[in-house]
From TrEMBL:
UniProt keyword terms in alphabetical order: Isomerase
SUPFAM superfamilies assigned to the protein according to its UniProt record, in alphabetical order: Glyceraldehyde-3-phosphate dehydrogenase-like, C-terminal domain (SSF55347), NAD(P)-binding Rossmann-fold domains (SSF51735)
Leading EC class: isomerase
GO MF entries: inositol-3-phosphate synthase activity
Start and end residues of each Myo-inositol-1-phosphate synthase GAPDH-like domain: 253-365
Pfam (any one): NAD_binding_5
Protein name: Inositol-3-phosphate synthase
Enzyme Commission code: 5.5.1.4
Gene Ontology biological-process annotations: inositol biosynthetic process; phospholipid biosynthetic process
UniProt entry tagged with the keyword Isomerase: yes
Domain of life: Bacteria
Length: 446
């Protein structure tokens, strides 16, 4: 809608969000069950969707003096929460009520109030390979003669879900896989599909889900730091099938705070000599990340943030010698309630040192669930928008990720506020509204 109340030509090109939106989730553990139970609680009027920009965020249209700031969900053609249907895959069996109890994020009374709904969703057996996630022992999993067979089993699951829904999105909420660099099998779609048949060891389970999803023309988002779609083969498939992809690794706790504080230091030209970050976490994610190979994947994702914000090569006197350390420690008593502790050594005028300490006692899945919801709704919007779906990578969704995807040769924006402006300006653009630059000269003089 334009500010005049009539649809602009761009907005008129967006396919309406009619019918059911199916959300498919590989890995139905703490984040997935918190997302699904939370959406149901909001639908029933039990709770508010706090933390969700798509549901509670506003967007300014026109000048500040126009006083035109609608809720995003009332203005943009997003799917309605009542039209969402969930399915997914997991390795532990049981229904979502059992999974949510095991995750221990939501209290028992809240879960009991939605018990029939949660019991009605039973995950399908997942594709799993213990080489990629060593600390988990599956109770149920798909069996196939090779990775091509397994990937096609996922496609069959998707096809069945397609018959029950009108549009679909997939979001990976599974565990962090071990760290790998791109290999020859990842370089072209032809090489990748040949590798599926040949059971190539460098094709991860998450890549099977992504390939199956993109083959079906469905958007794919990645909540973990796995390589997954950050390879030429699947980026090629994304563009070929007009199926959007985006970044990886939900920006929830410690990194969220980092992308707020680091831009503040840079904007004020304050130097940083060291940034030590440690976490204690007791949920399944913490158990998986206790393995060094899996932690390496997370570490790379978390370490890149400061380098891109501070640009030490352009600001050597302020950030050229920064010491950045990240640690994650598995501590079972903490459960899903993670503690992220940061010690930041900064220096100011004439080089005098100062320190900042941050102790963020956060709830990991409570922070992640609204991000997952927004990503599903915005990726569905991208798939219905001609100017976005053919791009492949949706850089405008960088706001949600520790490790945003960008076009080759383009560095990612990590500053949370630049990311927020990018997201809202993209929405304005596809809806035919004027972009907001915050220049503000129009309020002064003739």
């Amino acid at each position: 809608m334009s500010t005049s109340g009539t649809a602009s030509p761009q907005a008129a090109d967006i396919t309406p969000a009619k019918g059911k939106l199916g959300i498919m989730i590989p890995g139905m553990g703490a984040v997935a069950t918190t997302l699904i139970a939370g959406v149901e609680a909001v639908r029933r009027g039990f709770a508010k969707p706090i933390g969700s920009m798509s549901q509670m965020g506003t967007i300014r249209l026109g000048k500040r003096t126009d006083d035109n700031t609608p809720l995003i969900r009332d203005w943009a053609p997003l799917a309605d929460l009542n039209d969402i249907v969930f399915t997914g895959w997991d390795i532990f069996g049981g229904n979502l009520f059992d999974a949510a109890k095991t995750a221990g994020v939501l209290d028992r009374d809240q879960l009991e109030s939605m018990r029939p709904f949660l019991e009605s969703i039973e995950p399908m057996p997942a594709v799993f390979d213990q080489r990629w996630v060593k600390r988990l022992d599956p109770k149920v999993q798909k069996i196939g003669k090779n990775k091509c067979d397994l990937a096609n089993q996922i496609r069959n699951d998707i096809a069945e879900f397609k018959s029950k829904t009108d549009r679909q999105v997939m979001i990976w909420c599974g565990s962090t896989e071990i760290y790998i660099e791109p290999k020859p099998v990842h370089m072209t779609l032809e090489a990748f599909e040949k590798g599926l048949v040949e059971d190539d060891p460098d094709i991860a389970p998450s890549m099977l889900y992504a390939w199956a999803c993109l083959k079906e023309g469905i958007p794919f988002a990645n909540g973990a730091p796995n390589l997954t779609v950050d390879i030429p083969a699947l980026q090629e498939l994304s563009k070929k099938m007009n199926a959007p992809i985006c970044g990886k690794d939900f920006k929830t706790g410690q990194t969220f705070i980092k992308t707020v504080l680091a831009p503040a230091f840079k904007t004020r030209q304050l130097g940083v000599s060291g940034w030590y970050s440690t976490n204690i976490l007791g949920n399944r994610d913490g158990e998986v990340l206790d393995d060094p190979d899996n932690f390496k994947t997370k570490e790379v994702s978390k370490l890149g943030v400061l380098e891109h914000i501070f640009q030490p090569e352009k600001n050597p006197e302020l950030y050229g010698d920064i010491f950045h350390k990240v640690r994650i420690n598995y501590y079972p008593p903490r459960g899903d309630n993670k503690e992220g502790w940061d010690n930041i050594d900064i220096f100011g005028w004439l080089g005098y040192p100062m320190q900042i300490k941050v102790d963020f006692l956060c709830r990991d899945s409570i922070l992640a669930a609204p991000l997952a919801l927004d990503l599903c709704l915005f990726m569905d919007l991208a798939a219905r928008t001609p100017t976005l779906r053919g791009l492949g990578i949706q850089e405008w969704l960088s706001f949600y990720f520790k490790d945003p995807d960008t076009a080759p040769g383009v560095y990612p924006e990590h500053d949370l506020f630049i990311q927020s402006m990018k997201l809202k300006n993209t929405l304005r653009h596809i809806m035919g509204e004027d972009l907001i630059t915050h220049l503000g000269l129009e309020y002064y003089g003739d």
